Amino acid sequence: MAGSLIRKRKSRRHSGNRVTSGVTLAAAVPLFAVGILSMSTKTKAQVGPDPRLVAQLGKALFFEADLSNPKGMSCATCHNPDAGFSFPISLINQTQGPVPGAVPGRFGNRKPPTVSYTRFLPQGTPTLDPNNREYQGGLFYDGRVPNLTEQAKAPFLNPNEMNNTLHNVANPAAVVTAVSVGPNAALFKQVYGPTVFQQPTAQVYQLIAQSIAAWEGTPEVNPFTSKYDAFLEGRVALTAQEMNGLRLFTGSVTGRPGGPAFTKNAECSSCHNLAPTTAGHDLFTTGRYFNIGLPKNSHNPFYTMTDPIANPAGYNPLGYHFIDFGLGDFLYPLNGLPSGAVAQGDPLAIDGLFKTPTVRNVDKRPYPLFIKDYGHNGVIKSLKGAVHFYNTRNLTTIAGEVIDFTKPNPYLGLKGKPFWPTPEIPSAKTLINPAGHRTGPGRHIGNLGLTDSEENDLVAFLRALSDGYFERSGNTVPPPP
Ligand code: HEC
Ligand code: HEC
Questions:
Q1: How many CB atoms lie within 10 A of CB 263?
Q2: Which pTM does this prediction carry?
Q3: In this predicted structure, what is the pLDDT of residue 343?
């Protein structure tokens, strides 16, 4: 069954991942039920395995490089803690964005987002909030898995990632076998019992995924130890520049949403909102889906993946013409329509919507000159670039000229040169502030009216969101538990 799903979907990337999303939608799990809590209360009726050991095992599996085909790639290959749980090779971030898989010459179509803080995101299938017509729920940029456990099952099987496939069909048995003879087999038996590997493949595979998800839910992955957190705890002051950035980020003098209006509002917190998590800390995302209008990344290596013979289950039949529809790639097929549903005119208004990532750790990098990339396709290569994009998406080199994406041909008659290439999905239906308004009701992305130094203030603030502040600054004050 998994195989037929994969074959049916070979016109799209990430086939492996879809296999699991199909399985799990039926078994959607309630909000915030992931992680250690569910481990101790759900898996075993009477005495569950020790949650600390489960997390320890999950961490070991996250770093185990024997679980790919060919061997050598682990979850941490793409989600490295030193890079804020994203991709740790500067040159690839700089020149590509989306990253290589275990099989040489294969690439995914999106860049690895951070794993940190995803345990606090709304779970389930993306659903429409009727109050503001925004979608929320689910993991991956397009929400195609409902929770971290189901997510962890996907990369192992994805032909363009860890590639545990047999005759181009997803093959969880290979992962289970590899774990059972790998460096963590003894720990696995210690946690789940000496006969655990005699259980059916699906059950052991579930335990593998649950263990990884449990670790992803621990404070080690979600530490809340940035300078900003220390600032909120009253243990350190923000610099004037960082504070100005926070005020611009929230549009509030106090830096808390809802405070007296600041002179300018970059509106960041309307999507990267500060609302506290269950753990009582600001998350910097609602996990909701938006089209902020990022352009295509012409250096996306997925465009070159056009060979169906070399990679039947993961190739890209459209080549450079591949369009990433985000939520439209998941919800339309779920409803029996083709990805993106362009021909139908995007009736649900979801093409180009991507899940809002947290901006915690966007500056976390192993060394100062290390290059990180941003957005689902990694097209933006610096934080300054990201902020400048929000500030000028609808502008051109002629002061005051605005590109209006509600017009049939927005570029017709422009006198200046647009600052940015056209959005990948320039749809007035989904683009935030398509007309490029500078004032008035709603959001003003694309024409925020920030000066260069205000852009820098925002960058300074984003840089205060990297975990491990006290460790980095050499201050011995320990972070709170
Ligand atoms: C080859 C690189 C690669 C490997 C290996 C990899 N990932 Fe990922 N990961 C990605 C990419 C790319 C995405 C985004 C894909 C998408 O949204 O379609 C992602 C998304 C995620 C997300 C979702 C984050 C969010 O905000 O929704 C989590 C969690 C995650 N990966 C965990 C893992 C785990 C656990 C493993 C190992 C079992 C793993 N990854 C292996 C590249 C990788
Ligand atoms: C309308 C909602 C919205 C607003 C407002 C918004 N963002 Fe975003 N942000 C998003 C979404 C959605 C993404 C992911 C887009 C994608 O990948 O296509 C994103 C991505 C980012 C990223 C890249 C993160 C990463 O890990 O790749 C940064 C940095 C960022 N935003 C910063 C900001 C800042 C700074 C502001 C204010 C100037 C802001 N955002 C305003 C929704 C928003």
A1: 10
A2: 0.91
A3: 60
